[in-house]
Amino acid sequence: MIVYSALVFAVVFASGTFLLLQRDLTQVVVGIILISNSAVFFIISAGLTRGVAPIHPLEGADSVSDPLVQAMALTALVIGFGSAALLLAMVYRLYVSHLTVDAEEIADYEMRQAEALERVDDPEGEEVPAEEQDAEPIEEAAAREESEAR
Amino acid sequence: MTGSSASQVLLVLPVGIPWVLAAVLALLDGRRRWVGLLAAAGLGASLVSLVWLAIVVVRYGPMEMVAGGWPENVGITLRADPLGATFALVSVVVILISLLYELSLGVSWRVFPALVLLVTAGLTGLFLTGDVFNFYVFFEISMTASFILTGYREEDYQVRGAFIFSVVNLLGSVVFLTGIAALYSISGSLDMQTIAERTDILEPSSVIAVAALILAAFCLKLGLFPFHFWLPAVYVGSHAPIAAILSGALANIGSYGLLRFGGGILPRELEFGSMAVLVLGTASILYGALQAISRRDTSEVMAYSAIGQVGYVLLALGIGGPAGYAAAVLYSVVNSLNKGVVFLAAGLRGPLVGAAFAVGAFSIAGVPPAAGFVGKIAIFKAAIAEGSLPASLALVALLFLGGALSFLYSFQVYQRRFMRPRREGKPSPRSARFLVGALAALVVLLGLWPEPLVSFSEAAADVLLGGSG
To answer: Cα B9 to the chain's mean position, in Å?
Structure first.
């Protein structure tokens, strides 16, 4: 039994990891869901005991199956569910603004946008590149003035 | 240990106030000024009760309470000791200042105050719990709220940063959860003290794998060297108060977890792996400092510097012993405040901001009279007090090198940002600048009058070595 549960844990975890390393963000989310469920499976197998159901008036049983593990597994499931919903919402938000869920395409798009912003010369002036653009033309201008003076 | 019912209420207040208020404020529009102020008042009340709790705990010893009136070992325990109280206190201070800062700039999300309160509730809860699974639940509360907060302001790169942050940290949570399940499986309990007692008599070989899992999970949270890859992407993009909350308050989970689980629950395994811990810490210090020197953007430099700074905490943990643990606590506290100051100051402009940033940056470098100096001195002392002569020589040399490198990047970034004449935009609101100034003043004050901080961290180290160790 221990070998089997270890095998299942390993297979679920490994497929989750494989999906996590993909470029498609929805696949990444599915990967995280698989991985978090493998942890739930691990919790269950951490307390595998045979026995009667642990309901309060215990009727003449030698052993009771562990109730704590199931409580933990339920909690972990709920947390995993909430996180999955949150991640999917984020992916949807990225899809709305980029019309793609491919991680590299989104990164490319951002690079292009950042370059475009630098060209416009960001009025906020918070980014360092913009600040350098402020500073360097002045230095260049100073150098030009010097050379003209000569 | 178990106090009267009045003191039990005191134990619940720091967690309960922000939690209940968060649930209420989630229904209201957080962009309104009074909602934000109400959230700040709640945080203030939580802070006051924490200060009171910390004083009680340091004077009269740890406080314990079993939730729901269950018998001990059945119900979930809340336990306050100097270690948890110290961490909770510094985290709430940084979060409160960040919230007020954002209020003065103008909140742009209706859920912002509620999320900040939830982060606080999760953090104080996990610092004050005595149950490992409860620790995980509180930890997830604060992490999930911070996942959403990272996307605050909703620029595309911020949402992408939030996605990266969530995925990596969920992976870390799963690793940690697996570690908890394994701890439960080998010790048959979820109570921290019981686990500590039972793992002490178990075969080391069965515990060491679990200890490695838990160590890896907390290193991921802290962003230590081999696990740091997510950190710059997240810290650089996020809005200044969010970066301050992430690195000033949330990163405390990592250092607290390492101290509590490493030093408190699995001390034998920590000692066994101390060489690995020292090597990881060294690698973090050097990698973070060298990367920070090579970057230009202020927040990028500070993100890499964060990787280096947590290396010191790990180093102190690896040195171990009373001096080492006390130094680790002290350094974490000082580091949180430093990070709060520099990230908040980096988002502002106008008078007073440069001075506050300078205090934060030079505190990171360990220049007296800032508090960073006290932290560095504590680690120096620990390095000299514990271990053999060649080992302490190597450690002291490393600390000197790390200090010199961090002085270099602090100066570089200060010069680049504040000493160069530039076209000034409109200065930021005065209240935000005063807040940052006040936090910087706190850093200097703790540097000039370090006795309370030192005594708190020594009390915290005693908890690890005595009570549950």
So the answer is: 25
